[in-house]
Specification:
It comes from Georhizobium profundi. The protein has 287 residues and is mainly β. Helices cover 8% and strands 45% of the residues. The chain has two domains: 170 residues, Sandwich (Immunoglobulin-like), CATH 2.60.40; 90 residues, Immunoglobulins (Immunoglobulin-like).
């Protein structure tokens, strides 16, 4: 399949992101200097506020933390792969000292239909866990994080914030508990009762994926939602439930865009399967 020349034209509040951030007034907020604790200062914006909270590094120099996004009522923000519309959260730590390799993680999202587009995100405050690596645990480590997120109400705006933390070897019990709680919100691993059973291209249609899932009960299968995050250059449609039989459901997913020369079976796809009470995450290739 060849790559689409362009995405479908976007309208509504999300169109702001598609037109390029430089064409609009960027909501920029700077925290003034590092906070000498395991958390940054709060940075406020039109739709709420955000900060970073970190824990102490472990014996291998791995530092766990979270991006704490508080949203005012009615405001929303985006998942790592929102779909056709939206700005996924980004965290750049290139200005940091003695820190590297940030990995930003995401709780299971919600399916949001705002009347203009259907996308994956969060309709209330959310904490995004992250991991990074401290090069030498005996030396000072300063986290300088450039954060870019999108928030929406009647319109969508980008929020650009500089959050600074001088990492401490003595994070408070409250900070450690907050970080632990954020990590506990992440999807779990597959189980024998809740899993992705198969991912395959539909026979005769290289632009359509079929995903079979297994749930703990028929009720869970009927209520299950599926979200998929793709590598750069890929774009998938919203997974649509085709059928449910007992504890299994089948979803169909349209492949809207992919890099030239790649087949859908070449890309590692991150699947998040969600019920009312549980979520799991698996990385799989189409067969």
């Amino acid at each position: 399949m060849t790559q689409n020349a362009a995405d479908t034209q976007k309208t509504g509040p999300h169109a702001l992101f598609g037109c390029g951030l430089a064409a609009f007034a960027l909501v920029a907020a700077l925290a003034h200097g590092p906070a000498f604790a395991a958390s940054s200062d709060w940075v406020e914006h039109e739709g709420g506020r955000l900060r970073i909270v970190t824990s102490t590094p472990d014996a291998d120099g791995v530092v766990r933390g979270m991006l704490d996004i508080e949203l005012m009522p009615g405001w929303k923000t985006y998942w790592s792969d929102p779909g056709d519309s939206g700005l996924p959260p980004q965290m750049n730590i290139s200005g940091s000292t003695n820190l590297s390799a940030v990995e930003l993680l995401f709780p299971a999202p919600e399916r949001v239909d705002d009347g203009y587009a259907v996308w994956a995100g969060y309709t209330s405050s959310v904490r995004l866990p992250f991991r990074l690596h401290q090069g030498t645990t005996d030396d000072t480590a300063n986290l300088a994080a450039d954060i870019l997120i999108g928030v929406c109400k009647s319109v969508c705006i980008p929020v650009d914030a500089q959050l600074d933390v001088a990492l401490s070897q003595d994070a408070s019990p409250i900070e450690i508990a907050l970080v632990d709680e954020a990590f506990s919100s992440l999807p779990g691993d597959q189980t024998s009762e809740m899993r992705i059973d198969a991912v395959a291209l539909e026979p005769g249609d290289p632009n359509r994926l079929l995903v079979d899932v297994h749930l703990p009960s028929a009720e869970a299968a009927a209520a299950a939602e599926l979200f998929i995050a793709t590598p750069p250059g890929w774009r998938l449609g919203t997974p649509r439930k085709m059928a449910t039989q007992g504890q299994t459901s089948r979803f169909a997913v349209k492949v809207k865009r992919q890099p030239i020369g790649d087949g859908a079976d070449a890309a590692p796809l991150t699947f998040v399967l969600k019920t009312h009470t549980h979520s799991i995450q698996q990385v799989l290739h189409a067969e």
